[in-house]
Amino acid sequence: MLLTDAARAVRENAHAPYSNFKVGAAVKTAAGNIYVGCNVENVAYPEGTCAEAGAIAAMIAAGERDIVEVAVIADSPKPVTPCGGCRQKLAEFAGSDAVVTMLTTDGPQEVTTVGQLLPGSFDADYMTRT
Ligand code: THU
């Protein structure tokens, strides 16, 4: 299955009654496996958890940690971009050259990389004096 198709399919399961903005995400690992996630909102924290975070959690729960490709999709006027927190979460498990495809449900898409989404990211190298 295409990574973009996996993200498109899981978006249907999103629980987004507060924003009415359903998001689907899929990550592919170095082993070639695909993990998916959708956004899940709740009444106390209506921003909920992002689709990307869900896909990452599924990957971690399955015992994998190495993301090589990402897809994220929403019904938006332009291809949906991962939020700041999700950029950091993706950078934790993906190299800067990992490809990120951002899509709208009705066609337009943009392709970028984790490094372009989060330039100058904080990483463990900054902590070598501790
Ligand atoms: N959302 C995501 O799932 N991923 C993003 O990258 C952007 C935002 C969700 C969170 C919330 O449920 C809704 O979209 C509106 O912010």
Protein described:
- The chain has 130 residues and is an alpha+beta fold.
- It has one domain: Cytidine Deaminase, domain 2 (3-Layer(aba) Sandwich).
- Helix content is 26%, strand content 28%.
- It has four helices and five strands.
- The protein has helices spanning 3-11, 51-61, 84-93, 114-117; strands at residues 23-29, 34-38, 67-74, 94-104, 109-113.
- A five-stranded mixed β-sheet has the order 2-1-3-4-5.
- Strand 3 (67-74), helix 3 and strand 4 form a beta-alpha-beta unit.
- The model has no long low-confidence stretch (mean pLDDT 97).
- It binds tetrahydrodeoxyuridine.
- Residues 16, 19, 21, 23, 39, 41, 47-48, 50-52, 82-83, 86 line the site of tetrahydrodeoxyuridine.
At a glance:
With 130 residues, the protein is of the alpha+beta class. It is 26% helix and 28% strand. The chain has one domain (3-127): Cytidine Deaminase, domain 2, CATH 3.40.140.
Classified in CATH, the superfamily is Cytidine Deaminase, domain 2
Uncertain parts:
none
| The top level CATH class name | Alpha Beta
| Count of beta strands | 5
